[in-house]
Amino acid sequence: MVCFDSRRMAGWGRQSRNVKSILLIRYSALGDVVLATSLIAPLREKFPGARIEWVTEAAFAGLLEGVVDRVIPLSRKDPVSRAGVLRDVKGRFDLAIDLQNKLWSIRVARAAAPKRLRFVRRTPLQALGLLVGRDVVLDDLPATELYAKAAQLERSGPLQLKVNELATARAAQLLPGGKWIAIAPGAAWATKRWPAERLAQVAAALRPDGHRIALVGGPMDGALLDVIRAGCQPEVDLSAESLPVLAAALGRVGLLIGNDSGLVHVAGAMGRPALAIFGPTSVKRWGPRAPGVAVTLNLDCAPCTNHGGRTCPLGHHDCLQKLEVGLVLARARALLDGAS
């Protein structure tokens, strides 16, 4: 669903040539921020010469510097940071595009620009349904196309990330020449995580083919990372590295294998294929772009959620529990053979 904020957008097509400054608002989560970079190229095509700035979480700012003209870092839990962002953007833009659609992001957009567009996931009635556990699952278009429609663009563009020279050099040091595969066992929600033991089995089975294993993840993935370490003894552990270094490292691997998570889209933006393991969430909406592929059992009960959950609503979690190592391994080898 696309919503046009407060002021009417009548004559917008005729006025668009007067847009000289654009504010994008998307501050979480990692995957959504990366997917939102698909708007940059078509925005620059539609508004030649317009200045584009982006409000995002400080942790993600290092991936967007150079993609847009300026990144405005935000620490959402810090009231001083939030107030500073509001002061920074006030009245400086011709157009604000709010892809977060939260109360605070709406406030930022209203402060920033007289013309505003925002991505609305649910109608008011659907939002009420969410309060009683009834959510409408978006399963018709990729997230990038939903964002493009919200921004009144004809299409989405390529994913774009940039990392600085220090991060690039660090990644080259950590992953020197060779055949590298990244293994990412994490995901924000428990129902999106394929058992880490099986991921370790896939990694161990690929090592005799001459591949070296790099382990990737974040602070929340500690127990999962331990399982992978015990099961396949990766040559490199990137879990303590910064996000820019991690992105640069993913740009050096032959394949990322992991769950439906932001790292899948980071790999895609860095030009590398991902094999994404899907269970309860929509492959149409969140699946990796080619040459990456999703592996899923396509059960009738899936997708059952937009972002995952703590438990399977039916109590069995068959979408991932019944996904065998052999199928994932075969898909991984097919991708690797196609890239060689």
Structural notes for this entry:
The chain is α/β, with parallel strands linked by helices and 340 residues long. The chain folds into two domains: 2-150, Glycogen Phosphorylase B (Rossmann fold), CATH 3.40.50; 165-339, Glycogen Phosphorylase B (Rossmann fold, 3-Layer(aba) Sandwich). It has 16 helices and twelve strands. The strands form two sheets. The chain has a six-stranded mixed beta sheet, sandwiched between helices. Strand 8, helix 11 (222-232) and strand 9 form a beta-alpha-beta unit. The longest helix is centred in the last third of the chain and has 15 residues, at 325-339. It is globular and about 60 Å long.
The number of distinct structural domains comes to 2
Q: Based on the structure given, which CATH architecture of the largest domain is correct? A: 3-Layer(aba) Sandwich
Shape: globular
Class by helix and strand content? alpha/beta
Percent range of helical residues: 25-40%
**CATH topology title of the largest domain:** Rossmann fold
Tally of extended strands? 12
Rg, rounded, reads 21 Å
User: Which CATH class of the largest domain applies here?
Assistant: Alpha Beta
In DSSP terms (H or I, runs of 4 or more residues), the helix count works out at 16
Averaged pLDDT, please? Answer: 93
Low-confidence stretches: 1-10
* Element order: H for helix, E for strand: EHEHHEHEHEHEHHHEHEHEHEHEHEHH
CATH superfamily heading of the largest domain: Glycogen Phosphorylase B
